[in-house]
Amino acid sequence: MARHSPCIGICKLDDATGYCLGCGRTGPEIGDWIGLSERDRDAIWAKLPERLARLSTRVRLLPLTSDELITWIGEGIDTGSGTWVVGAPGAVAEFPPASDRSIRIDVQPGALTARSGDASLRFLINEKVRAFAFAETGIIALGLPRGRAAFPSTSNIQALGPDTAAIDEAQRADALFDMGIGRRYSRFCVRTGDEVLLTALSAQSGRNWSEALPILKDQLIDVGAHRVVESAAARIEVFGAIPRLGGPSPSGAHTHFLPEFLKSGEENAANLALPDYAAPIATFYPKKT
Question: How far, in Å, CA of 185 to CA of 193, rounded?
Fold first, then answer.
């Protein structure tokens, strides 16, 4: 599979070094790129980390192809090297490394699924998915071109019908409700097969989550509704118990739905901003040592 270009849409040469401030290539390397062999392109890619560090470039495009990206994701989950997060600030799901839980990984062409007792995770990786590293933090954000990453957006609770995209077939008949956080590139949903909770959620359809949540929260907790957070290429489903207000987050997979952070309207954390052409789909946080 051909490796993509290092270009991130910031095309300006640094006067002191002659390197592009966005990708780290020289002017001749940029001009010759289309005609270069894969071997020559790989040789340039190998030089870029040092150049970008010299330029103090914070966000750096990685050379990973889609197949390499799936392999890297799978190896990271298998070795417990960090936590995957999907969602917008204030409404996220976290799939952390295994501690006292086992994780089963399944790899298919263009897809990776990981399952544990408290959550499932799925990535759909095509040739347009890019991996961006943030300097020396170890944080990796996956992104798609904005036109490919947009998601149906709503600012009110909305019934979506059966969750036909559920990772496991057993949940595909359960009802899915978008909680209406109003983001373009991710959504936070709850899923249930409980008739009483389904009726309560249906009664709140069309209302803003800030009005409906005080009415629904106790039932959501009591039933243990599944939380489903997804983007155009990633989905985390969390089955673990929902902690009550002020209670500690579970040690395993969990979600956060935090009204004070949702007010910002951000699609991604400000310190993890991607190049203008890209939208976030998932973020990897390395395990703290």
Answer: 26
Count of the separate structural domains present in the chain: 2
111 and 45 in one domain?
no
What is the tens place of the pLDDT at every residue in 252-289? 899 999 988 898 889 998 899 999 999 999 999 998 87
Residue 48's nearest CA partner among 70, 28, 20 is 20
Domain that holds residue 216: 83-125+145-265
The model carries a pTM of 0.94
Closest CA to 245 of 235, 256, 229: 256
Which amino acid, 205?
S
CB 27 within 8 A of CB 13: yes
52 and 92 assigned to the same domain: no
Label the pairing between strands 140-145 and 234-238.
unpaired
5 and 53 co-located in one domain: yes
pLDDT digits (tens, 9 = 90+) for 189-217: 999 999 999 999 999 999 999 999 999 99
Q: How far is CA 32 from the centre of its chain?
A: 34
